[in-house]
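Illustration 12: Hsp70 family protein.
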Amino acid sequence: MSVKDDRKIVENRMTSDSFTVSGRNPKEGFTEALEAAVRLTMEDLSILMMNKEGEFYLAASASLFPTGWTVNQRIGWTISQLHGPVPLWHQQVGNSVSKFLARLTPESPMERSNYFVEVKGPNENLTETLYRPGSLCEKELSSPLPSDILIRRERQTFRRLPRTGAIVFGVKTYLTPLDELPMAELDNLAKEMKSWPDYVGEYKGRDVWGAKVLEYYRKQVGQEKKSTEKDGSNEG
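Figure caption equivalent — predicted structure in token form:
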């Protein structure tokens, strides 16, 4: 950051972009802080603030790659409202999340990981794959190829701002096709999806991609077993 004529300017030396974020004259065309931040990082960024009832809500967001929602639809929603469709949220998860957010301090940012299974359509480009405001698994795509089944990981970060107490929620998205997944992770996925109750499986779209994942998993297990037996016979 540099200061020029009482204006604070953030510069990205890799792209040569610059953003004036504050100064004496508000008519000079400042860049909003959230816009500048999201253009300087590879994460989607949202601002969570506390309402009068003591619950955090979505106050602002710059999200290019939402999963199952849009900013215009959910701006102003509380954490409970945002997670309404999540199975057992109110019974088992909501209180833990509230305590987690309350413990955050400016000196102790936190992070967690989350994942979804996504099925991309034929001839779908990367933008369409990443921008999924609706369902991740359309019913008509019930027989996808392994390369069309994607593990969509999110690295989620939480930072409390020192002056306002608001929380900056960041999400960085990674996509891995099923046929590029390491065997250990594929094994974990197969075991986890089998353990889900029906209502959880329905929420996660297992009826669309589940059979193909297990079919691919059994095939990979068989190939690995043959490879191990072949190596053993060669050593003998």
